[in-house]
Amino acid sequence: MAPRLAAERTAVLALHWQVNVIRPEGFFGGMLSEPVRSSGVVERASRFHAAARAAGVPVVFTRFTVPEDEGDLVRNTAFMAAVGDAQESFRPDAPGSAIIKEMADLGERDLVVDNQRLSGLSGGLPLRLAELGADTLLLTGVATDLTVEQTARHGTELGFTVHPVSDCVTAADPAAHRASLAALDLATAGCLTAQEVLDRLG
């Protein structure tokens, strides 16, 4: 029998469900909006988030934003250089930084946390998760081979038990998505489908 997940020690990390990543008009829309749409991941992840909340698990949304002083932004990759050059589109109050409407209705215990790194766990989020009593993280988001993988590895190194939710993540390239999940199945506590997670919470 698969080990149970304790809702009181678990949190969903919902990574980069924002207009700039998901929608055609967003900064990365040309690369990601069509793969996201065709995969159906928004609908699956929205249902999963709702079911996790109903089971007593908070959903913590991370947004990539760039404040006026640039915060912790470091232009040490092509990705970071690109968003640094277009930082007006990533201001916390910019339309592209908003959580997509399908996920904008937050639960009482949900959080929205901004940072300027690829890992959703950069900055003060690990401390906030500790305050919630969470030692197990369920990852949803876009893209599998970027923020999801970076966050999953980061969380594992910090000592969290991390499960990427395999049918609630996607990437621009299906092959990269599959390869990333295969790597994370070894580098984390293992990938689970949304239904497998809910069964373990049940």
Keywords:
202 residues, alpha/beta, Rossmann fold, 5-stranded parallel β-sheet, 8 helices, 5 strands, 17% strand, globular, Isochorismatase-like_dom
Structure commentary:
- The chain has one domain: Isochorismatase-like (Rossmann fold, 3-Layer(aba) Sandwich), CATH 3.40.50.850.
- Helix content is 40%, strand content 17%.
- It has helices spanning 19-22, 29-39, 41-54, 78-85, 125-132, 144-157, 174-187, 194-201, and strands spanning 10-15, 59-64, 111-115, 136-142, 161-170.
- Strands 3-2-1-4-5 form a five-stranded parallel beta sheet, sandwiched between helices.
- Helix 6 (144-157) packs parallel to helix 7.
- The protein is globular, with a radius of gyration of 16 Å.
- It comes from Streptomonospora halophila.
SSE topology sketch:
Layout: E1 10-15, H1 19-22, H2 29-39, H3 41-54, E2 59-64, H4 78-85, E3 111-115, H5 125-132, E4 136-142, H6 144-157, E5 161-170, H7 174-187, H8 194-201
Parallel strand pairs: 1-2, 1-4, 2-3, 4-5
Domain Isochorismatase-like: 10-196
Keywords: Hydrolase
Organism: Streptomonospora halophila
